[in-house]
Amino acid sequence: MLQSAKYLAPMWYHLTDLIVDHAQGCYLYTVDGKRYLDFTSGYGVTNTGHCHPKVVAAIQQQASHLLHGQLNLVFHPAVLQLAEKLHHVLPPHLDRHFFSNSGAEAVENAVKLARHATGRTNLIAFQNGFHGRTALTMSLTTSKVIHRKGYQPLTPGVFVAPYPYAYFYGWDEEETSIWCLRQLRHMLQTQTAPEETAAVIIEPILGDGGYVPAPNSFLRGLRQICDEYGIVLIFDEVQTGWGRSGRLFAHQHAEVEADILIMAKGLASGLPISAIAAPAGLMEKCEPGSQGGTLCGNPVTCAAALATIEVIIEEGLVENAAHRGAQSMDLLQGVQEEIGFVGEVRGRGLMMGLELTRPDGSPDEETTRAVQKACLERQMLIAFSGPYSNVLRWLPPLVVDEEQIEEGVSIFREALLAAKAHP
């Protein structure tokens, strides 16, 4: 069966050659009958676990009623119910919602909204951020050169500020936060005038850039700067949202508010849907017809999203992410102390990064890949990230239980020891 993969376009990167037949909860089952513990969640998508019965039932029911209801032409119950659900779940000032199909689309929609609302052109993003692969969004993306290589020149008017990546700089979090805020203010004096700057966009926790949480003090300082200059603050919570960090959204750890909130990945448990949320006063500055899309707000994906949100809330998955995240941190730091070449264990909730470095502190991509391969040999799926591909992602579904975390840590420990024994 794998032979048919030759007919797929070669641009995809494939971490494994597994052919998955079905999945349930935290496990993937291959066509040859093997079971794999999935600590990738499809890059943070299956927060409710694979094929949650309530989500599957909602999809099946909606599919038998209406597959497509184009929102320029008609309304349908699923999109109206989802918009109302978001109104009750999100911070109250984010009271208008626009749906699209992918994280990159949502980022583009957020940027277009910010430009319309402010009448300004320029954008500030942050080093190591990932916001998508389209012409505009890869202009905001600096997590790996492969996303931009060969596509220059990119969209103009984008300026990149340093992200508070304390481990990389070798400073403590507060020192890094202060320095990065100072550099941002310097940028507004030297590169992009505040009166020309429409928006600042940031991941509260870097995703593809290495799973680095921004310190709370940095996000608060960022909010202050945006308020000072009338700049729209966009939180890209495509991967961090819907409970992943132990809060419903990661920026809430800092007790700050978004002007525009971007959501995708975990919103519909695997079906393609994204959303932006913003205050009515901001949204109303966009003309009707200035944004849209044929499949935006699809009935089946809206039904899946509605069911997903209900599962996350009713089953306490945000709280479980916080508890299982604390358990993971404790156990993984124990492994770090025991084995020694994990440079840093960091993250929030069930979005954690394990950065592997050599004795001189340089990135250790070779060992990272060896550990990932050793985990796979022990039937655990784990991925890596970071500009140097030396950060392993700890990203189990939010339904993971205490025993599965222990199983995952045990496999990870064995994989580290195997990699250390055969450098």
Strand order of the largest sheet: 4-10-9-8-7-5-6
Task: Count up the helices.
Answer: 13
The CATH architecture of the largest domain: 3-Layer(aba) Sandwich
Ends distance: 33 Å
CATH superfamily of the largest domain: Type I PLP-dependent aspartate aminotransferase-like (Major domain)
Which percent band covers the strand fraction? 15-25%
Global Rg? 21 Å
* Helix-residue proportion: 25-40%
**Shape label:** globular
Topology order in helix (H) and strand (E) letters: EEEHHHEHEHEHHEHEEEHHHEEHEEEH
For the record, the count of structural domains works out to 2
Number of strands: 15
CATH class designation of the largest domain = Alpha Beta
Unreliable stretches: none
Largest sheet: 7 strands, mixed
Structural class: alpha/beta
CATH topology of the largest domain: Aspartate Aminotransferase, domain 2
Name the average pLDDT.
96
